[in-house]
Amino acid sequence: MPDHPTNHGAQRRGSGSAPLSECSVACRFPSLKITRRLGVLSLLSATFALAAIAAAPGKGVQVVADEANRRVDITIDGRPFTAYIWPTSLKKPVLYPLIDADGITVTRGYPLEPRAGERIDHPHHAGLWFNYGNVNGFDFWNNSDAIKPENRAKMGTVNQTRIVSTKSGPNRGELVVESVWITGEGKPILSQATRYVFERRGSARVIDQIVTLKALDRAQFNDDKEGLLGLRVARWLESPEEKGGVFTDANGNATQVASAPAEPGSNPANGVYLTSERVTGTGAWGTRGRWCALTGHTGDHPASIAILDHPGNPGYPTYWHARGYGLFAANPLGRSIFDPKQPAFNFTLEKDRAVTFRYRVILATHAASPEELNKEADAFAAQYK
């Protein structure tokens, strides 16, 4: 899945195309051209590249912890796939970036690594994350350094606490981590145990994210549109229909989103959503389905990102909080916020009770079809009972 032009060191792999060449470090890791304003993450790209170089002799899926730099790097045959990071500049851990089998980054760079021509709205949209907009009245979704001091007591933070285990393998790697949700009053409210499974399957790259939340006190997820599994995509995967505007969260905070910016060169936004219910384009927002895919292309490189829901998740099938400006999220805990005819969900965990959410994210280097995504959804449902 091609990215912004900064990623054109990779050649497409596939029928009739040459394999990726063994080029220089600068060619293989173009993101070494880093910004210097990122504080703890000022060497984000460099450390990711160096970790990938160190892992290069190891074949297969390598999961390598680097706690000193607040990250775990995931590579496939020595080439970057993603990293689990918890920088001090973010208010939750995230996977960033997401890179497909052809070496193309499909996530937005801002706020970690801003790129020319991309949007700079919603600074809390970084990589792939998991949190919610209203738990006991505290907003974990919208929190960032951009929050005004007078509003910070209303926000929540997800703090990384421990790497439990890492595992590497020929075609599959695993990472288990623990974190805690802390309110703006400094009170721990939820413990989170997350198991990531990273898999290569031919030209597909697959991430299973299994999250167990345990209530440290009574926790109510008030019906809200800001949740739960979120991804912010590269500019070329945005919708060409997006006109911009003002988007307001459940607390009345407004964010101005500009119309699609002009990108240097010729790489216009062309992403199109498709749900399992055959809803397409910007019409996918606020509808339900067991999967949703976002497909686009950069240059001659087609790409799809698919998120699969699991029948064991609360609120299945999920609502899609999928925006044309590049937010791609699955929210099973909102209901009346998407459909005013429905009663509010207000999912609640009593103290010491737990719930598990399962999601699968697929990066494909082609336009994924409904038939193959239905098969994937069936297999995902059967794998985790």
CATH class reads Mainly Beta
CATH topology: Beta-galactosidase, Chain A, domain 5
Based on secondary structure, the structural category is mainly beta
Give helix and strand order, one letter per element, not per position: HHEEEEEEEEEEEEEEEEEEEEH
CATH architecture: Distorted Sandwich
The percent range for strand residues is 25-35%
Number of strands: 20
**Distance linking N and C termini:** 31 Å
Biggest β-sheet description? 8 strands, antiparallel
The helix fraction, in percent, is: under 10%
The structural domain count equals 1
What is Rg?
Answer: 19 Å
Query: How many alpha or pi helices?
Result: 3
Question: What does the model show?
Answer:
- With 385 residues, the protein is mainly beta.
- It has a single domain (5-383), classed as Beta-galactosidase, Chain A, domain 5 (Distorted Sandwich), CATH 2.70.98.
- The strands form five sheets. The chain has an eight-stranded antiparallel beta sheet, covered by helices on one side. A four-stranded antiparallel beta sheet has the order 1-2-3-4.
- The protein has three helices and 20 strands.
- Residues 1-57 have low confidence and may be disordered.
- 8% of the residues lie in helices and 35% in strands.
